[in-house]
Amino acid sequence: MMYDEELIAPMRQELTELGIVETRTPDAVESYLATGKGTTLVVVNSVCGCAAANARPGVAVAMAHAAKKPDNAITVFAGNDGPATAKARSYFVGYPPSSPTITLMKDGEVVFMLERHQISGRDAEEIGNDLAKAFNQYC
Fold first, then answer.
1. Paired residues of 21 in beta bridges
2. Residue numbers annotated as active site
3. pLDDT value for 50
4. Burial class of residue 65 (count of CB atoms within 10 Å of its CB; 0-12, 13-18, 19+)
5. 101 forms bridges with which residues in the sheet?
6. How confident is the model at residue 36, as a pLDDT?
């Protein structure tokens, strides 16, 4: 583990309080992504400032305001859930590793992704609105 669990517990909690399931092992990730059926939101969480100021709050905006929601929503924590994060990223074909990342998958394929460079420097409302549009389109 890269970071002290006490330090990152509130960062994990920001997402789990939204109903997003924490997947800390490759098997847990696989249980959501292996079937390739329906829609799944995958949030690669991290300690960086853009995760705190933009990504996690943006996910909260989308979860609160989107008319439609994914069938499933999971999160992994880059740096602490290494094998689980690697498993999740193995499904993001054609995308380099990025933390944080907010990905929407449908029937086993990435249909929408916000990578770090698309998160950093944007406010939570913008991110949330983009994500809510993706939910409404694909879910």
1. 74
2. 48, 50
3. 87
4. middle
5. 44
6. 85
